[in-house]
Design brief:
Chain A: It is found in: Periplasm. The complex is a heterotrimer. Chain A is an alpha/beta fold. Chain A contains 18 helices and 11 strands. Chain A has 2 domains: 167 residues, D-Maltodextrin-Binding Protein, domain 2 (3-Layer(aba) Sandwich); 218 residues, Periplasmic binding protein-like II (D-Maltodextrin-Binding Protein, domain 2). The relative contact order of chain B is 0.14. The chains are: A alpha/beta, B mainly alpha, C mainly alpha.
Chain lengths: 436, 276, 290
């Protein structure tokens, strides 16, 4: 009896799920602060567009990436808008998986997008994703700690200076660590940071014939420098810290320096979230005098999968979320400092933004300094600063990141980690048919 | 003298029992306490256990960000649905195996269990493609089906071991007395089988509720249960310990409460034939 | 005649379950087998072609394969050891009369209701975190350096997290078995001056053997393909120190989107699981014979 009733109820409830309203947009996005803010403010959009409803799927970055990639590659059609980055856009656009965005609204002003960012999202002259926020990387440092130690941070420091300062500031008894850097394995985590850093050390992922280069002295220098620095002046457990973990550490006042995404600047200077909001200074990502700085380029962007049946509505939403008007909306609700950065020239020309965001100039300069088409000192066959824009990179980058992470945790030596990285990259590149 | 020893013994066991019990429960307790702290207090050192400003703000924050009740409802439907359907299919099967065993019964049972050894991630792409073609992606129907099939071997086995304990002679006797099959079931077997079925039901609701691979990979928005909801809190965003605790508490609270209230029923049949 | 009749009814009653499981097994397994012979990457559609045993060769020659195999077995073995020994101890403890027994029992079984993702998140961030975790604070209190559990002892830490979740299950099954133990026999032994140890070895343990078998069997089934705890805590690292076979297949399927090699990995995992199963049934299967 109980069972039949149970089964019946289940059946009825199941049947009722099939019907959904025609214009519901399902949006897949990352659980980063700016996206969560967009989700909160989206009621403004639905108020203007009563015929469109929004369903949010907010996930941690890696989970999200798996889900949208599986979905788009198999044409699952579960999402109408996907949040993807500059790595995916060119690869997916070439597969015809994305809709070219040509219907973003009359006042969208595509030419206002920062050229470096726009270039990364354009394939064959068509924009395939609209940048929600863009970022490079830079040094964020604690002015109070630098003052106390009697060190002056230049606007464009060298790696030697950074290493030296980090060691001086470190005070482990009081839980002050000189520098916080990404150590958590993942192609978007430590591999991104180390690839960009390696560029400034003169290293590269592949030579012009796609041979992996981890057996070069440049990579050895990079990794040795990084491991030594974090061991001396980094927080405990650095090998499991990613962007978000380091953000938490910096906000709670435990890092002297943090070299990471420019987008973090507004979080660390926000008094509501950060204990050290008034004591943060900014500088360019360091270099080694080889002509390349260790800063990357990335843009979290909104795109419409080709399988979506609601492309017009989806473009309308994207047009809203990445517009100048959205920036003004955020400014009016939460202040100019919290506007998603790094996408539009007009934002950086806005006097109010410059006043509210002390990091604006440095962010813009960092973004301009990154060149995905010529990322390294020596020539390379690939595009991308902190990634290599080939489909195989996610797998390789994560596996290499695990080796780097192991070297940092001390479970393997730097030499062994690089040897493993070289072997596994060669293996994958052979399988991919790049090398024999 | 003897009473004194018993009393002392009882005291010793009380101390040991409570120490171990509290230690094992501590991670959950700590999560619940932290969920009522502000983010700042959640990482304060030294941590405070009782004397802090209790707040509900994390719960409101989690609720505004992701519609908890929708996900909770999905969890309820999916776990009840898959368990209910599973029992419907498994009861007859287990029944037949227990009362009309053949020489193949053991092998069939072992084969069923071996289907559970298939690592889910190995068959993800095939299942995903099948789901896509049948329009089952992000539907509760699809998840009910998958979770039912996932847990069916355990259900069958658990019921089989339970039914086997029911003495067959009772059936024979009833049949001699001219009882029809229907009466046989209603008056004789049902009362004896109910505890086993109840226990199987509970165990499978728990297993289905906590399943996190298929629920995460086959849903997007509509059908996502609590195990997928927690995925949006699985990496920190700045200071997030209190919010993570609130989301975790919300995800486990319903099943924990259910489990506690029904633990007697759960335990009664949880023998897998291990009791002679 | 009557037997024929019941036999047929029995077959009819079994058929839905058997058929469903057959379909559930044959269809995905068939597809997996088929894919395992294809060069098939989701990110490069239109490039599928037959590749013979290429995927198997690729998967088995992965430098992490043997480590993953060892980790899989270590993880299963470690969790079994902790839960069986701990579960027996806990069951005996809870079976003693003491004040608040009912509440302690509730506390002990609670971890079983916590979903693996949540328990992994809680352990990782709130307890084992080397800066903000409670263990770090306790270490500081004793004047020690906090241990970065998941980086230094990844496999051990994951074993602990998983064992915490499965301990109540083992405890409950052993407890139900204990409760059916003949009290008089035990008391008689006590009268005869048998010590606690010998009572345990000669009376309790033999009585529990079936329960322990069940615990081992069921846990093995679930633990062989453990994934969520690893994914949330260490992502298989550092290096490949906590990668098991499930996680290795995950990397093929959801990082490289290489359906072919993931399928080959799936087939390999099934074969391994069956070897373990046969081994297990040989070893302890006789305990299950009624």
């Amino acid at each position: 009896m109980v069972l039949t009733r149970l089964a019946l109820t289940a059946g009825v409830l199941l049947a009722s799920t099939a019907l959904a309203s025609a214009e519901t947009l399902t949006i897949a996005t990352v659980n980063n602060g700016d996206m969560i803010r967009m989700q909160k403010l989206s009621s403004e959009f639905t108020a203007q567009n009563p015929d469109i409803e929004l369903e949010w799927v907010t996930m941690e970055e890696n989970v999200l990436r798996q889900k949208v990639t599986t979905d788009i590659a198999t044409k699952g059609g579960q999402f109408d808008i996907m949040t993807i980055g500059t790595y995916e856009v060119p690869i997916w656009a070439k597969q015809n998986w994305l809709v070219a965005l040509d219907d973003l609204g009359a006042d969208y002003d595509v030419d206002d997008l920062l050229p470096a960012i726009r270039g990364g999202l354009t394939v064959d002259g068509k924009l395939y994703a609209a940048p929600f926020y863009g970022e490079s990387s830079m040094v964020m440092y604690r002015t109070d700690l630098f003052e106390k130690a009697g060190i002056d941070m230049p606007d464009a420091p060298t790696w030697d200076f950074v290493a030296d300062a980090a060691r001086k500031i470190t005070d482990k008894d009081n839980e002050i660590y000189g520098v916080c850097l990404r150590g958590k394995a993942g192609w978007g985590e430590n591999t991104a940071f180390l690839s960009a850093t390696a560029n400034s050390f003169g290293a590269r992922w592949f030579d012009m014939d796609w041979n992996p280069q981890f057996d070069t002295p440049q990579w050895k220098n990079t990794l040795t420098f990084y491991v030594d620095l974090l061991n001396d002046a980094g927080p405990p457990g650095a090998s499991s810290n990613g962007f978000n973990e380091n953000l938490a550490l910096f906000q709670s006042g435990k890092c002297g320096m943090w070299i990471d995404a420019t987008v973090a600047a507004s979080f660390v200077t926000n008094p509501a979230e950060s204990k050290v909001a008034d004591q943060v200074g900014f500088a360019m990502a360091p270099d080694n005098g080889l002509g390349k700085r260790g800063n990357w380029l990335w843009a979290w962007s909104l795109a419409v999968p080709a399988g979506s049946e609601k492309q017009a509505a989806a473009q309308k939403f994207i047009g809203w979320a990445t517009s100048k008007a959205y920036a003004e909306l955020v400014a009016s609700k939460e202040g100019w400092a919290n506007v998603p950065p790094g996408t539009r020239t007009s934002l950086y020309e806005n006097a109010e933004y410059q006043k509210a965001a002390p990091f604006a100039a440095m962010t813009l300069e960092s973004i301009k300094a990154a060149d995905p088409t010529k990322p390294t000192v020596d020539p390379v066959p690939y595009v991308g600063v902190q990634f290599v824009a080939i489909p195989e990179f996610q797998g390789i980058g994560t596996a290499v990141g695990q080796q780097f992470s192991a070297a940092l945790a001390g479970t393997t030596s730097v030499d062994q980690a690089l040897k493993n990285a070289q072997n596994l990259t060669e293996r994958e590149m052979k399988r991919g048919g790049y090398i024999k | 003298m003897a009473r004194e020893t018993t009393r002392n013994r009882k005291l010793v066991f009380t101390v040991i029992g409570w120490t171990i019990g509290l230690t094992l429960f501590f991670p959950i307790l700590w999560t619940i306490i932290t969920s009522f702290k502000t983010e700042g207090e959640a990482i304060a050192s030294p941590p405070s256990f009782v004397f802090f400003q209790w707040t509900l703000e994390n719960y409101f924050e989690v609720q505004t960000r992701s519609d908890y009740f929708k996900h909770a409802m999905n969890s309820v439907i999916i776990s009840l649905g898959s368990t209910g359907l599973g029992l419907l299919v498994a009861i007859p099967a287990a029944w037949a195996m227990a009362f009309s065993p053949t020489k193949h019964t053991k092998n069939v049972l072992m084969w069923m269990l071996s289907t559970k050894m298939l690592p889910p991630v190995g068959v993800l792409v095939p299942i995903f493609l099948i789901f896509r073609d049948f329009g089952l992606l992000d539907t509760r129907t699809g998840l009910v089906a998958v979770l039912m099939l996932m847990n069916l071997p355990i259900i069958v086995w658990m019921l089989y071991t339970y039914f086997k304990e029911i003495p067959g002679e009772i059936l024979e006797a009833a049949r001699m007395d001219g009882a029809t099959l229907g009466k046989e079931i209603v008056y004789i077997l049902a009362p004896m089988a109910v505890p086993g079925i109840a226990s199987t039901l509970l165990l499978n609701i728990i297993l289905a509720w906590n399943e996190a691979f298929w629920t995460l990979n086959l849903t997007a928005a509509d059908a996502a249960p609590l195990s997928a909801f927690i995925a949006s809190y699985s990496s920190p965003e700045g200071l997030f310990w209190a919010k993570l605790s609130a989301a975790s508490t919300m995800a486990i609270a319903p099943i924990l409460v259910m489990g506690w209230f029904s633990q007697k029923q759960l335990v009664r049949g949880l023998t897998f034939g291990a009791v002679k | 005649m009557a037997t024929m009749h019941t036999q047929n009814t029995a077959r009819l009653m079994m058929s839905p379950a058997v058929l469903m499981l057959l379909v559930w097994m044959v269809v995905p397994l068939g597809m997996t087998l088929y894919f395992s012979f294809l060069r098939y990457n989701l990110l490069m559609p239109g490039m599928e072609h037959f590749t013979g045993f290429g995927n198997y060769e690729f998967f088995l020659s992965d430098p992490a394969f043997f480590e993953a195999l060892a980790n899989t077995l270590l993880l299963v073995g470690g969790v079994l050891l902790v839960t069986v020994v701990g579960g027996t101890f806990l069951a005996i403890l809870i079976n003693q009369p003491f004040w608040g027994q009912g509440i302690v029992r509730l506390l002990v079984i609670a971890p079983f209701f916590v979903m693996p993702t949540v328990s992994a998140l809680v352990w990782k961030n709130m307890l084992m975190h080397p800066v903000n975790g409670l263990f770090a604070w306790i270490a500081h209190g004793f004047g020690l350096d906090p241990v970065d559990w998941l980086a230094v002892l990844p496999l051990f830490s994951i074993t602990m997290i998983v064992a915490w979740g499965w301990l109540p299950f083992a405890t409950l099954i052993i407890l139900t078995a204990l409760q059916s133990l003949d009290q008089e026999q035990q008391e008689a032994a006590e009268m005869d001056g048998a010590g606690i140890v010998s009572i345990f070895t000669y009376i309790t343990l033999p009585h529990l053997s079936r329960a322990l078998t069940v615990v081992v069997l069921i846990e093995t089934i679930f633990l062989l393909s453990i994934f969520a705890e690893i994914y949330v805590t260490t992502s298989g690292g550092p290096g490949t120190a906590s990668t098991n076979i499930s996680f290795l297949i995950y990397a093929e399927a959801l990082l490289k989107y290489d359906v072919g090699s993931a399928a080959a990995g799936g087939v390999v995992a099934i074969i391994l699981a069956n070897i373990v199963a046969i081994f297990l049934i040989r070893m302890i299967g006789k305990n299950l014979e009624a």
